[in-house]
Amino acid sequence: MKNYTITVNGNVYEVSVEEGNADPSVSTAPVKKAAPAQKAAPKAAPKAAAGAQGSVKVNAPMPGKILAVKANAGQAVKKGEVILILEAMKMENEIVAPQDGTIASVNVGVGSSVEAGEVLATLN
After folding, report:
1. Is 37 helix (H, G, I), strand (E, B) or coil?
2. How far apart are CA 107 and CA 102, in angstroms?
């Protein structure tokens, strides 16, 4: 018997499949359990107020999940300083400030899934 975890539309299902058995009495009904990302994952930094956009955008280099937010709106940062930690392909990637400035907005929170090119934060 093999066990699989399948995610469909954000819902996680555990499915057990018995190999080589054509017995119709074997039930393969999925067992639904809560998706890990849906467990009360509080956002470390709320989105900035509407209109609070900086002139320098920090974009996601690849799709992934936000593991940590290291800088908050209003915080001064230096070029190369870590703003966020992005998990992609089971690796933690540091998203750094492209230049010196002040964080104008942090547009994501811990546990957020992001797509490549999505604006993660802005700087002034």
Report:
1. helix
2. 14
Sheet holding 91-96, edge to edge: 91-96, 82-88, 64-69, 113-114
Report yes or no on whether pTM surpasses 0.70.
no
Buried (b) or exposed (e) across 66-97, using 16+ Cβ within 10 A? Answer: beebbbebeeebeeeeebbbbeeeeeebebeb
Q: Give the residue among 81, 124, 83 at the shortest CA–CA distance from 102.
A: 124
Q: What is the pLDDT of residues 9-49, one digit of tens each?
A: 878 888 887 776 555 555 555 555 555 554 444 444 444 44
Q: How far apart are CA 33 and CA 97, in angstroms?
A: 38
d(CA 116, CA 68): 17
- The order of strands in the sheet holding 31-33 is 2-8, 11-17, 31-33
